[in-house]
Design brief:
The structure is a homodimer of 168-residue chains. The first copy, chain A, is an alpha+beta fold and 168 residues long. Chain A has one domain: Arc Repressor Mutant, subunit A (Orthogonal Bundle), CATH 1.10.10.10. Chain A has helices at 23-41, 47-56, 65-75, 81-93, 135-147, 164-167, and strands at residues 97-100, 105-108, 119-123, 129-132, 151-162. Chain A has a three-stranded mixed β-sheet. In chain A, strands 1-2 form a two-stranded antiparallel ribbon. In chain A, helix 3 crosses helix 4. Chains A and B meet through strand 3, helix 5 and strand 5 of A and strand 3, helix 5 and strand 5 of B. Strand 5 of chain A pairs antiparallel with strand 5 of chain B. The structure holds a DNA duplex (30 and 30 nucleotides).
DNA sequence: ACACGGGCTGTTATCTTGTAACATTGCGCC
DNA sequence: GGCGCAATGTTACAAGATAACAGCCCGTGT
């Protein structure tokens, strides 16, 4: 794995995941949405938690907890691992971010609000990771579990390979 | 997580995963199959690697690398983390075991021989983990990737919840 | 016989990821 | 004012994984 503080993958830190886009808008939208959701649920999106959410949203690449920590520490000297993990746990609990299990890293959720497990396409080249919502895939997962009378609670679906840009 | 050396989940160490079965046969079958596969590919299933495979197969529960190490060390005093990880890497490379990403643990492959990513049902109660092969699910995954022109290489599918026995 | 080379294992040290446990702060409420 | 709770601070450590180099064994070519 990359050294602490270094980007996990090549490409600009402002990572333009799918195609060029105004990533500032992505972040703003995500933060606005998060504030709305937390207000509606009457849970506290504290400045610390919001800052962590912002850091996770810096790119469309999953970011490691210790990378978040390094970044957070720039503005928040008392930051320690538990600081970050608590914030990440909160954000996951509210469905605002996802953990990418195969990378031990975290990614902003593009479908925040509705509780869901998430399905991901992870480019091994550029690191960009896209969350997809595919009802057929969802149905196939449910069917597979049902077939053996397994009561599904959480589903991890992470497909790694090459994104359209990198394959070209 | 459980202390090193302790079982990750309750239940007997001889873990009878799905229903009661003669687990000795499972192990024997897996080892025999592994020997055949390695012989056919002209790669070396050394005593060390075979021992690690055997340990992973002790139950139908995913086993952590350090649990493997503890067990291995009983008969192999020089065992160290690299010893275990090298063996696990070899076994994964040959498709004889899988890594369960959401648990950072390893599980014997019941479909050894054909290269595949594996799809798993993980019981959070008893820990028993079943590998399933579901062509429809496989197709749904491929479709989902194809839809956005993503070139899939490795697929992680891990569904956690309650197995039929534990749900009852 | 012997040098070489590759594959496997030994060995030490370290890095990365994640938690336990207890202390402190701030704020609403009675 | 004191209580209780949620959030954060702080110290220490557990758990998972790898880097880097050393040594061994065995087959091959000369």
């Amino acid at each position: 794995m990359a050294a602490r503080g270094a980007a996990q993958n090549k490409g600009p830190a402002t990572a333009q995941a799918h195609q060029s886009h105004n990533h500032r808008e992505c972040i703003d939208d995500a933060l606005t949405r998060a504030r709305e959701i937390c207000a509606a649920r009457d849970v506290q999106l504290t400045p610390l938690r919001e800052k962590v959410l912002q850091i996770v949203w810096r790119s469309h690449k999953p970011v490691g907890a210790y990378d978040v920590l390094d970044e957070l520490a720039r503005s928040h000297k008392s930051a320690r691992p538990p600081t970050v993990y608590r914030a990440l746990d909160f954000l996951m609990g509210e469905g605002l971010i996802h953990k990418i299990e195969s990378l031990n890293a975290y990614l902003g959720c593009t479908e925040a609000g509705a509780p869901h497990s998430g399905q991901f396409l992870i480019c091994r080249q550029c690191g960009a990771t896209e969350e997809i919502v595919d009802p057929k895939l969802e149905a196939a997962l449910d069917q597979a579990a049902k077939r053996v009378h397994f009561s599904a609670e959480h589903k991890v679906v992470e497909i790694s390979g090459l994104c359209a840009r990198c394959a070209a």
